[in-house]
Amino acid sequence: MKSKIVFLLVGLMLSTLMFGQKAESPLKIILKLDDFPNHLETSTLVLDYLCENNIKAGIGVIAGNLTDSSTNILRRYLNAKSKDKTNLFEIWHHGLYHEKFPDFTYQEQKARFEKGDSIVHARLGIQMHAFGAPGNSSDSITARVVSENPNYHVLMFVSAKAPAESKIRKLNNRVNMENGTGKPEFDFFVENYNKAIAKHMSLMVLQGHPHMYNTPEKMEQFKKIIQFLIEQKARFITPEDYYLVNSK
Question: pTM for the complete prediction?
Answer without folding.
Answer: 0.88
